[in-house]
Amino acid sequence: CLSPLFLAFFLSNSLKEAVLSSLTFGGVFTLLSNYWLAFFKDYAYLTLGSVTIAYCGVYALWGTLFWRFSRPGPYRPLQMAGIWCIFEFFKSIGYLGYPWGLIVYPFNNLLPLLQIADLGGIWPISFWGALGNATIAELFLRSKDRIRYGATFLGLSIIFIGYGAVRMSTPIPELDRLGTILVQHNRDPWETGKEIENLRTLQRLTRQGIEQLGGKVDLVVWSESSLPRPFRESRQYYQRVPPEEPFLEFLRKSNTYFLVGNPVVKNKEQREVQNGVVLLTPEGSIVDTYGKRHPVPFAEHIPFYEYAWVQNFFRRVIGLEGIWALGDTDTIFKVRGRGGSEICFGVPICFEDAFPYICRKFIRQGADLLINITNDAWSRRKSAEVQHFVVARFRSIEMKRVLLRATNGGVTGAIGPFGEILSQAPLFEETYLALEVPVFKENHLTFYTQMGDWFPLLLSILLLGVLMKSLIRGEAEFSL
């Protein structure tokens, strides 16, 4: 998929040509792969439009470096692979990080190839994919070194697959099992006037799941924003709705713990509310809460929103009435498993499961598994659901932990520690998964969980050295 772009860089006669190629590729690619952002409520031009325009600028800026490392030389494919890997890394981190559309995702079903992620995250695979594309571009040019380039790519492929085969043949100890109901009620919580109807659907599907597991359930999981009213502050409301079986009464009858997407009031006086999750006991007590720490920029959170002029702009021009407050704690929840073991888990909310640093924090603080709650139902597009699922799948591989996902419309499922799909619900259907989830836990953390994103940082140092060397030699003059 990158070969035409790399070929354009190789054939560019000037920096201007290379930057134009990069800008065009970035704009078209972003627009087509993220078209479902146009269904983000009434903010289509703010989301899809701003993301596309922004990435035209990002790709144009990086086009300078792409072109610099695409100049003829014996190590050109390696340099292109390195700079592309670094680009994807910096594209995916920070407040504005957007780790969608990375080159690793199309390979998500080639599990032996992907196990290298528990050493270096997805970044060695990004390097490998870019190297393959650069090698193909060299074949089109009939480079004299094409045999050596092809052998290098083949050798790296064998190393990755060999490591993966050994890793997947090494069993991971099973700590316990968790009787879990993952509910997918397929209702958009942004639709007004359907709050009680949605709650009825959630309770009905949960009841069916509990019956399927014979009443022996350790945890029920409802997706992001399932309960739109803060539980603690709206307790009287949940004591009387739905009228035929109020939610608190339903909790007591279910006799299990509920993990529910629910707003968490951070500061009542200042009206600060987090996009959160609560763990409820059968008696209706709150065990603990977690507030989303990485919000969607300019949709869930806006910098400098405390200033009146910023609020007025977004309310009058954009139509955005409010934002979520940032979470400030990496909560580790705990429940008992089938065998009586204490099962600890972290709950990345929505696209937080796309950010390895968030999931690594949970695991480093003792989480035995990850549970993601998501509302992607607003997109009404299968591609949006599947893209998110694929992104999340890599967190299991990196940290060798089970990942559960309870989503509004999909993809609800369970992913094993090697990235294997243990169970998966169909998209956009009212359904549930009743599972005895195996909880795997090695005695040691994976190298990536401990060391983080060392691979792209190492590449940055190496390529910076190459760039400095060329500058010293006077080889970095750009022809405009």
How does this model look, in words?
By secondary structure, this protein is an alpha/beta fold. It is globular, with a radius of gyration of 24 Å. The two termini are 27 Å apart. The protein has helices at residues 3-11, 15-33, 44-69, 76-91, 111-114, 117-120, 123-140, 146-168, 195-212, 235-238, 247-254, 308-318, 356-364, 382-399, 447-451, 454-472; strands at 174-184, 219-221, 257-261, 264-267, 272-274, 276-280, 286-291, 333-336, 342-346, 369-374, 403-407, 413-415, 421-424, 431-440. Residues 476-480 have low confidence and may be disordered. The longest helix has 26 residues, at 44-69. It has 16 helices and 14 strands. The strands form three sheets. A six-stranded mixed sheet has the order 7-6-3-2-1-14. Strands 8-9-10-11-12-13 form a six-stranded mixed sheet, with helices on one face.
